[in-house]
Amino acid sequence: MLSGPDPVLGWVGGTVLRPVLALLRDDDAARFTAEYAAALRAAYPPRPDGTTVLPFRRVFAVGTRPS
Predict the structure, then answer these.
(1) Which residues form the domain of 52?
(2) How far apart are CA 54 and CA 66, in angstroms?
């Protein structure tokens, strides 16, 4: 559950979006971010209470050394 303005953009902005924006000029990065934010708002609309559901599948793995 996420909250706030453009919560999904905020979620991906600290991870997967950083290397993409690093490759773009400032004006291109701003335009891309605006268009991406609009697409994310359409794909993940807020619920009536203002929260946004972001289904995020997590996979955990545990490794061991052979004895």
Answers:
(1) 1-67
(2) 38
Tens-digit pLDDT profile for residues 4-57: 989 999 999 988 899 999 999 999 999 999 999 999 999 999 999 999 999 878
Question: What's the predicted TM-score (pTM) here?
Answer: 0.77
Number of domains composing the chain:
1
Q: In degrees to the nearest 10, what's the CA dihedral of 43, 48, 52, 57?
A: -90
DSSP labels, 3-63:
-SSSHHHHHHHTTTHHHHHHTS-HHHHHHHHHHHHHHHHHHSPPPTTS-B-----------
